[in-house]
Design goal:
single chain; alpha/beta; 6-stranded mixed β-sheet; 6 strands; globular
Amino acid sequence: MPLIRLYLFRHGETEYNRQWRFQGHLDIPLNSKGERQAGDLVPLLAPLNLQAMLSSDLKRASQTARIVAQCLGIPQHSHPGLREAHLGDAQGLTREEIAARFGAEAIERWKSYNLTDADISYPGGETGLQVMKRVFEALELAVRSRPDILRWGVCTHGGVIRRVAQKLLPQGSDPVAIPNGVIYEITFDTQADQWRFGPRLTPPLE
Protein backbone atom coordinates (compact mmCIF):
# COMPACT_ATOMS: atom_id res chain seq x y z
CA MET A 1 0.00 0.00 0.00
CA PRO A 2 1.25 3.54 -0.74
CA LEU A 3 2.88 5.97 1.63
CA ILE A 4 1.01 9.27 1.64
CA ARG A 5 3.12 12.40 2.06
CA LEU A 6 1.71 15.62 3.45
CA TYR A 7 3.73 18.82 3.47
CA LEU A 8 2.56 21.02 6.34
CA PHE A 9 3.41 24.67 6.02
CA ARG A 10 2.51 27.72 8.05
CA HIS A 11 0.65 30.64 6.47
CA GLY A 12 2.32 33.94 5.60
CA GLU A 13 2.58 36.91 7.93
CA THR A 14 -0.37 38.93 9.21
CA GLU A 15 -0.39 42.26 11.02
CA TYR A 16 -1.10 40.37 14.26
CA ASN A 17 2.01 38.26 13.66
CA ARG A 18 4.00 41.43 13.17
CA GLN A 19 2.61 42.80 16.46
CA TRP A 20 3.24 39.46 18.24
CA ARG A 21 -0.47 39.07 19.00
CA PHE A 22 -2.02 35.64 19.54
CA GLN A 23 -4.65 35.18 16.80
CA GLY A 24 -6.38 31.87 17.49
CA HIS A 25 -9.67 31.86 15.58
CA LEU A 26 -9.57 35.62 14.88
CA ASP A 27 -9.79 35.80 11.09
CA ILE A 28 -6.88 38.09 10.25
CA PRO A 29 -5.85 38.28 6.56
CA LEU A 30 -2.31 38.26 5.21
CA ASN A 31 -0.45 41.54 5.08
CA SER A 32 1.69 42.50 2.08
CA LYS A 33 4.71 40.65 3.45
CA GLY A 34 2.55 37.56 4.01
CA GLU A 35 1.38 37.65 0.40
CA ARG A 36 5.00 37.83 -0.75
CA GLN A 37 5.93 34.94 1.54
CA ALA A 38 3.12 32.87 0.01
CA GLY A 39 4.61 33.51 -3.42
CA ASP A 40 8.06 32.59 -2.12
CA LEU A 41 6.68 29.18 -1.12
CA VAL A 42 5.86 28.27 -4.71
CA PRO A 43 9.40 27.37 -5.90
CA LEU A 44 9.97 25.45 -2.64
CA LEU A 45 6.80 23.38 -3.00
CA ALA A 46 6.87 22.95 -6.79
CA PRO A 47 9.54 20.17 -6.79
CA LEU A 48 7.38 18.10 -4.39
CA ASN A 49 4.84 17.33 -7.13
CA LEU A 50 1.81 18.14 -4.98
CA GLN A 51 -1.50 16.85 -6.29
CA ALA A 52 -3.88 18.86 -4.09
CA MET A 53 -3.89 21.58 -1.46
CA LEU A 54 -5.69 21.38 1.89
CA SER A 55 -5.92 24.33 4.24
CA SER A 56 -7.54 25.79 7.29
CA ASP A 57 -10.55 27.90 6.40
CA LEU A 58 -9.19 30.97 8.22
CA LYS A 59 -8.17 33.73 5.81
CA ARG A 60 -4.45 33.76 6.55
CA ALA A 61 -4.16 30.07 5.69
CA SER A 62 -6.68 29.90 2.85
CA GLN A 63 -5.14 32.95 1.15
CA THR A 64 -1.65 31.45 1.39
CA ALA A 65 -2.92 28.13 0.06
CA ARG A 66 -4.79 29.80 -2.79
CA ILE A 67 -1.70 31.66 -3.99
CA VAL A 68 0.34 28.45 -3.99
CA ALA A 69 -2.39 26.24 -5.47
CA GLN A 70 -3.10 28.64 -8.32
CA CYS A 71 0.58 28.89 -9.21
CA LEU A 72 0.97 25.10 -9.12
CA GLY A 73 -2.29 24.45 -10.96
CA ILE A 74 -3.72 22.10 -8.34
CA PRO A 75 -7.13 22.04 -6.60
CA GLN A 76 -7.56 23.64 -3.20
CA HIS A 77 -9.79 22.35 -0.38
CA SER A 78 -10.34 23.75 3.11
CA HIS A 79 -11.42 22.24 6.40
CA PRO A 80 -12.21 24.02 9.69
CA GLY A 81 -10.53 21.18 11.57
CA LEU A 82 -7.17 22.63 10.52
CA ARG A 83 -7.81 25.98 12.20
CA GLU A 84 -5.46 27.38 14.80
CA ALA A 85 -6.39 26.61 18.40
CA HIS A 86 -9.22 28.67 19.82
CA LEU A 87 -7.45 30.68 22.51
CA GLY A 88 -10.53 31.96 24.30
CA ASP A 89 -9.92 35.10 26.33
CA ALA A 90 -6.28 35.21 25.18
CA GLN A 91 -7.15 35.88 21.54
CA GLY A 92 -5.89 39.22 20.28
CA LEU A 93 -3.51 39.71 23.21
CA THR A 94 0.28 39.96 23.17
CA ARG A 95 2.47 37.59 25.16
CA GLU A 96 3.00 40.32 27.77
CA GLU A 97 -0.73 40.95 28.08
CA ILE A 98 -1.44 37.23 28.45
CA ALA A 99 1.24 36.90 31.13
CA ALA A 100 -0.21 39.85 33.03
CA ARG A 101 -3.76 38.49 32.85
CA PHE A 102 -3.25 34.73 33.18
CA GLY A 103 0.31 34.34 34.45
CA ALA A 104 3.55 33.45 32.66
CA GLU A 105 3.10 29.77 33.56
CA ALA A 106 -0.01 29.60 31.37
CA ILE A 107 2.03 30.56 28.30
CA GLU A 108 4.84 28.15 29.12
CA ARG A 109 2.46 25.23 29.66
CA TRP A 110 0.55 26.09 26.46
CA LYS A 111 3.79 25.96 24.46
CA SER A 112 5.13 22.92 26.32
CA TYR A 113 5.91 19.72 24.40
CA ASN A 114 5.08 17.52 27.37
CA LEU A 115 1.87 15.62 26.70
CA THR A 116 1.03 16.09 30.37
CA ASP A 117 0.61 19.79 29.57
CA ALA A 118 -1.62 19.22 26.54
CA ASP A 119 -4.79 19.44 28.63
CA ILE A 120 -4.24 23.13 29.37
CA SER A 121 -6.38 25.87 27.83
CA TYR A 122 -6.88 29.57 28.19
CA PRO A 123 -10.25 30.54 29.71
CA GLY A 124 -12.95 29.88 27.12
CA GLY A 125 -10.53 28.19 24.71
CA GLU A 126 -9.57 24.75 23.45
CA THR A 127 -7.08 22.42 25.06
CA GLY A 128 -4.11 21.11 23.14
CA LEU A 129 -5.67 17.64 23.19
CA GLN A 130 -8.85 18.98 21.57
CA VAL A 131 -6.77 20.62 18.85
CA MET A 132 -4.85 17.39 18.21
CA LYS A 133 -8.06 15.41 17.92
CA ARG A 134 -9.75 17.62 15.34
CA VAL A 135 -6.58 18.17 13.31
CA PHE A 136 -5.92 14.47 12.89
CA GLU A 137 -9.60 13.85 12.14
CA ALA A 138 -9.34 16.39 9.29
CA LEU A 139 -6.09 14.91 7.97
CA GLU A 140 -7.38 11.35 8.10
CA LEU A 141 -10.60 12.35 6.36
CA ALA A 142 -8.54 13.81 3.52
CA VAL A 143 -6.20 10.86 3.05
CA ARG A 144 -8.89 8.20 3.43
CA SER A 145 -11.46 9.88 1.20
CA ARG A 146 -8.93 10.53 -1.59
CA PRO A 147 -6.59 7.52 -1.69
CA ASP A 148 -5.60 8.54 -5.22
CA ILE A 149 -3.80 11.61 -3.85
CA LEU A 150 -0.37 10.65 -2.54
CA ARG A 151 1.12 14.14 -2.08
CA TRP A 152 -0.79 16.87 -0.27
CA GLY A 153 0.13 20.43 0.56
CA VAL A 154 -1.42 21.42 3.90
CA CYS A 155 -1.48 25.11 4.81
CA THR A 156 -2.20 25.58 8.48
CA HIS A 157 -1.04 27.41 11.61
CA GLY A 158 1.92 27.44 13.95
CA GLY A 159 -0.03 26.02 16.88
CA VAL A 160 -1.38 23.21 14.72
CA ILE A 161 2.11 22.22 13.53
CA ARG A 162 3.27 22.31 17.16
CA ARG A 163 0.48 19.92 18.22
CA VAL A 164 1.15 17.56 15.30
CA ALA A 165 4.82 17.41 16.30
CA GLN A 166 3.90 16.97 19.95
CA LYS A 167 1.75 13.96 19.12
CA LEU A 168 4.14 12.28 16.66
CA LEU A 169 7.64 12.99 17.97
CA PRO A 170 9.13 11.08 20.92
CA GLN A 171 8.76 12.70 24.33
CA GLY A 172 11.79 14.84 25.08
CA SER A 173 12.27 15.92 21.47
CA ASP A 174 13.38 19.48 20.85
CA PRO A 175 10.55 21.90 20.01
CA VAL A 176 10.03 22.41 16.28
CA ALA A 177 10.52 25.88 14.82
CA ILE A 178 7.33 27.38 13.39
CA PRO A 179 8.11 30.68 11.61
CA ASN A 180 5.76 31.88 8.90
CA GLY A 181 6.26 29.77 5.77
CA VAL A 182 8.06 26.86 7.42
CA ILE A 183 7.48 23.46 5.73
CA TYR A 184 7.52 20.05 7.42
CA GLU A 185 6.89 16.64 5.90
CA ILE A 186 4.65 14.14 7.63
CA THR A 187 3.70 10.74 6.25
CA PHE A 188 0.81 8.35 6.64
CA ASP A 189 1.47 4.65 6.12
CA THR A 190 -1.87 3.27 4.97
CA GLN A 191 -0.85 -0.33 5.61
CA ALA A 192 0.44 0.23 9.14
CA ASP A 193 -2.17 2.92 9.83
CA GLN A 194 0.63 5.05 11.23
CA TRP A 195 1.64 8.72 11.09
CA ARG A 196 5.25 9.87 11.21
CA PHE A 197 6.77 13.33 11.54
CA GLY A 198 9.50 13.99 9.02
CA PRO A 199 12.11 16.64 8.34
CA ARG A 200 11.87 20.38 8.08
CA LEU A 201 12.33 21.25 4.42
CA THR A 202 13.02 24.98 4.41
CA PRO A 203 14.90 27.76 6.19
CA PRO A 204 12.77 30.61 7.59
CA LEU A 205 11.28 32.94 4.99
CA GLU A 206 12.13 36.61 5.29
